[in-house]
Every structure is written in structure tokens, then in C-alpha cells.
């Protein structure tokens, strides 16, 4: 049996017990809310992770790339929402997915795109389900609830051949900026009102709106009212990370993915040490106290090699391509971390960090045994 | 023949003509300086790129991971410096490389590591070439020139079985912080003095120091004096990027790698548009005007789909996992960039951006033809 000690570093460790606990918690929360939970697989990008996230749910997922959609379809998942703005050039791959039996939801906020997609879909001999994308405050893609563009786009999607109006969808990515429970609850309610308002506009125009979909891990976790919604999409809750922990989505000891790294140098005169996990192994998502977070995580907090105990006061303060510089609030614990010893880095942003690896080394709770290797699908 | 228009986006485009020009310029510069140029392949991570970088040079390369070393050895390169602090746990892979005939240089700044490496190397039946790593001002790994630790470590590496003292090595990564030609030249001179001083210490102690190695793209480009050095290591010059361009290592139109992306949405009320290249497609290395650079590049500047002309005043202002938000200094040029049209993103930091892809789509100068597909080696 492989042990942690025998792994080459840096590598990505996934604690299956924590993943299962995180997945179960969200599943139970939305059993109670009455929403269909459609886990977003952009974080996990693994069929093994998806199977755990789908336990107790209806079986549909969300993805952020067509490569994910194709991979999950290859593994038997047949209800997939591709939640990044559709463009006509992607129609051949979308049509191929539909033809192989995938119920594929897509999103747009543009009549021009809808019209071109209609032409291309007719040419491909398929009908594409399209949700109207809404901007509930993130200021990324989407239409603003209440505006006349929504029923106008709905009418086009409903009436044209080749497209089918499937509902509305929004993502309160602005919840990541919240620094209090009150603010999170308010953003969750704005997300809900946005989706429900737009759904009401469509229905008032005599149009169907079967799906009313919202989602982000913070709003899925802290939303108080889900009236009028049908579906919740969220992803990072499965793994957790320092950033979600700092904004209150979960506890620090819920974090299920970590990077195993080796201490490769001591710099006593800098009160610092080096590990073999840098910008490529951790990603460059930085968290700072200046953002109003409780604690500056730099490029990630540290735990011992077992992943059981965080080492307080320690963070990855700087990253280079393959080096991470560990900084300490107090005197650096050189004796605790000799050169050659190992640590775990708790990632700031699990989606970005996991994307640097092509597989998870799976452990099961506080054990040194590596019980499995789960491949990931990266790229486009 | 594949054309740019037929590629799925996002994808990584490499202009071979620019790569060859950049490589030739550095090769000629160091033919003149008399140093052996040992290109750092951590940026390119491709044998096809290495062959171009090695044209006219002695044939040795630098790498940042053992996976790179193994890959390049598989492709016939047999003189490789692994320029990240050695730890004893990596000895089995290092010994395997040496046994297959690779002249492998390694680095350390620690007597403890040297001693343990000696034991392990003897057990493996190999002798490991080790360079003493120096800190010439970056404040990452390395010993400080002039300190007694240098001859002490040199003595250990020279006397112990299983290790061979191969010389000294430093990397002026602090050159990236320079904001003027004078400052760059000063850092280059500090890098040189550091290496030459340490080499002098070893020789004064009766120890050999065949290799005196320095390197970073800015100091390789702007250094004025190379006396006492034997070797230059640099990597990003092959590709160039926005950051190197802003600090004066090359011109903006020397940038050889770009990300081809599709405009996927317009947001007139935000004076912005969206592309399908976000944090994963571009990496999250951000450049800001606040860092004293001439212009805020956000997460990258924009060029037209041909890659020939930069679109002035436009940048990737925000990134999400799969979305990039284009911001404009003036009114957004929506007519120039309709939804479905394509752009090229000039990357801030080529090493990080290229690492998000498993291959280059190769073009040859200002042509729409994709002439080759060159795989990359990522991971560890």
C-alpha cells in the first residue's frame, strides 16, 4: 500500500472523508430547502468526486468547459448545464453532446447569439436548451432582472427553431466579496430575487420557465429563503479552501484538498524556509488581510504532513515558479520543519490549485495510507 | 492545413518566427560575452522549443523539475542543471538520470543536505555534481557571498564520497523588481560579483570551481560585464511576455506566446466585454500600474486575432475561472469585437500562462496557418 511518505512532492492530496462530509452537508441542506442540487464540477473535474457529490441528489451537474461536459458524458452523466456563455462556434461540440443523449443546458444573454445558435442548431439537426443568464450583482455576464431584454430574449429562444427556452440562471459570484453573515444573506436574497423576478417576467409574457437556477457556495450555505427557485449550483463546498473558510462558508478543518510539499531549505537570517511548492503547485491566488479577511493567508496556510493540525502563524508568503517561501508570525519553527520534512499547504482557492494537477492522491481521514488515485480532466 | 479560425478556444499560440528571433538574439549576445548559454526550459517545457533555444549553443539546459529533466533526457539532452534546491528524497530519480548518462548538475546551500546526499548517492552507486547556491539579492534560497559557509560547504561537497563540487550558481530574480535600465545593470553587476566572489572563496580554499553560473532574462539582457563568469541561464526571453516587455527586456512585439480567445459577451452598461479565457487560461499573475510599471496590464493586454496588432487601451481587467472581463481606457470597441470574434491575449507572465496548456499551436509569423502542434511537459 502506498503511504504519504512515499509520494513525490509536490502532489495533490484529497481527503475522501472530508469530501464526503462536505458533500453530505450541502445535500442535506438542499433536501431541506427543496431545491435540486446540481453540483458544479469545475472544482473537482473528476468522476470519482462527482459520484460523491451526486449521492442523494437528482444526478445533474454543472460544468465550466465543454471538455468537462464531454468527460462526464463519457462517464454516464446525462444531465449537464454548461454555465459559461454560449457562442455559435461551440455548436458542433454541443450538438455532438446532445446527439449522444445528454440533456445539455446552455446559457446566453444575447438575442444575436440566440439567433445564430438557432441557425446552427437547425443545420446540425438538434434543439439546444438555453437558459437566460442573469447578473444578480456580480457584474460579469447576464441581463439585469426587470429589464425588457429578458422577455424579448425569452421570446426569441422560445419561438425560433433549434432553441428551447429552458429557464433562467444566475451566479452570485459577488458573495465572495462579503465579509459578514448579514452581507452574505443579503447577497443570497438578491440572487434569489433576481432569478425569481426574471422568471416572473417570462411567465407574464406567456413563456415557459421550468428552471430557476442560482448558485455559489456562500449563498448556497447561508441563503435563508429559496422560494421560487428550482435549482442550486455550487462547487467549491466539496473541497473547501482557505478563502471560503475565511468568509465563513465552512471551518478550516473541512478543507479536503491540500498540497503535500517538502521543506527544501532554511533561511535563518530571513526567518523563513523554502518548500518545493510554488506558483505552479499552489496557483497564484493570493489572500491578504487588506481584503478585510480575518487573517493574511499569503498563498496558503500550512498544516503538518498528516494534514491533521494547522501550524499556527505560518503561511506561504511568497511564491516563485517552483519555490514557496514560508513566513512566520513569530520565530520560524526550524526544529519542527527540518529540511526534507513535509508539510501540507491549505490552498487559498481550491479550484485554481487543483487545476495544476492531473490527479488526486486520495487518503481517507487521518491516515498515512494513500487509498486511491483519481484522475482529473483539465484544459479545454 | 489547420487555420487559426478552426481552433477551439482558449488555446495557446506560439509564433515560431518570434521564438527563433528571440533565441537568436540571446545566443548572439552571449557568443559576444563569451559565456556558455544554458537556456532555462522551465518556460518552454518542450523539446521543440529547446532545439531552437540550443541552436548555436553548447547543448546544455536548465530545468526546474525532475519531470522536465527526465523528459529532456528522453529526448537526448544529456547536460542538465536542475536549479531547485536538492533534497535527499529526490535522490532515486536523480541517480536514475545520472545512470542513464546525463551530466546532471544539482544545487544546495546546506551542509546537512550535502552530507545526506553523499550517503544516499553512495548507496545508489553514483556521484552527484552539486553547485553551491548563492543569494545575490533575491532573498530566496542560497548562501551570501563572502560568508565562511561557502568554503565550508565546498569542502564537504569536495571531500565526501558521492558528491562532486561543481561550482557556484545564483539567480538574480530580484531583477524583476527593477524599474530602470540603471537599476537592471546594477542588479546584473551584483549577481556577477556574488558569483565571482564565491568562486574566489572556493579557489582560495584550494577547492575547484569549474562552473560560475548566473542568470535571469533581465540581467542576461542588460548585464555590461561578465568577467569571471562561465555560464548564463535564462528562459523567459525565448517567449517574452508583458511583464518582461514593461521592464525593458524586449519589445511588446517580441512576445511569441499568446492565448487565442473568443469574445463571448458584451456588457455595454459596464463598458466591457467577456472572453472565454479566465484565470485558468491566463493564470492569475497580475501586473498593475501601482508596481511602477509604465501601464496597467491587468491580467494581459489584447491583440487582434492575427496577433499582429495590439489593440491599444484594452486589457483583461478581471478574471474568473473561465471568464475574462475586457476593460477599456476609452469607450469599449464593441463593433471591432463582436460576440464570436477572436482576440489574442498577450500574457503577463509566459511561464505561468504556458503551464496551463499541454501543447502549443505553432504559427510562423503573420500567417493564419497552424503549422505544428508541440507538446509540453507539465507537472512534477
Automatic annotation (TrEMBL), chains A, B:
Coiled coil: none annotated. Keywords: Lyase. GO terms for molecular function: D-serine ammonia-lyase activity. It holds the Pfam family Ala_racemase_N. SMART domains: D-ser_dehydrat. The keyword Lyase applies. Belongs to the DSD1 family. This is Alanine racemase. The keyword Disulfide bond does not apply. Residues 256-364 form the D-serine dehydratase-like domain. Signal peptide: none annotated. One of its GO terms (biological process) is D-serine catabolic process. InterPro entries: Ala_racemase_N, D-amino_acid_metab_enzyme, D-ser_dehydrat-like_dom, D-ser_dehydrat-like_sf, PLP-binding_barrel. It comes from the Bacteria.
